[in-house]
């Protein structure tokens, strides 16, 4: 009987310590280590069709939950000034867009995705 009482007491103390450690050490929120949900969208040219597609995409993203998609990185060829101008205009008009030339985007993705 004493052994059963001692085992029960040890079990209760173990559960109490576990609960105390779980709530006592929690100084950061679970979202601190989450990745920002983003998408990468290549922009090949600055045609009116591309601009219309980007506007439609921005409208669709505006209706999405921020947990699904928060940022769209527009990647343009560095030698295409018109595509760069289109991407910069989209960034100014829509908060969901960010823009970068292809080499910068590749370096950034390699840096953040490398273990």
Account of the protein in words:
- The protein has 115 residues and is of the alpha/beta class.
- The chain has helices at 2-24, 48-63, 81-93, 102-113; strands at 38-42, 71-76, 97-101.
- The chain has a 3-stranded parallel sheet.
- The N and C termini lie far apart (54 Å).
- 12% of the residues are buried.
Write the layout of secondary structure elements.
Layout: H1 2-24, E1 38-42, H2 48-63, E2 71-76, H3 81-93, E3 97-101, H4 102-113
Parallel strand pairs: 1-2, 2-3
Number of helices: 4
Instruction: Please state the CA-atom Rg, rounded to the nearest Å.
Output: 25 Å
Q: Structural class of the helices, strands and pairings?
A: alpha/beta
Uncertain runs = none
Oligomer: single chain
Distance between the termini: 54 Å
Shape: elongated
Number of strands: 3
Give the structure's gist in a few sentences.
This protein has helices at 2-24, 48-63, 81-93, 102-113; strands spanning 38-42, 71-76, 97-101.
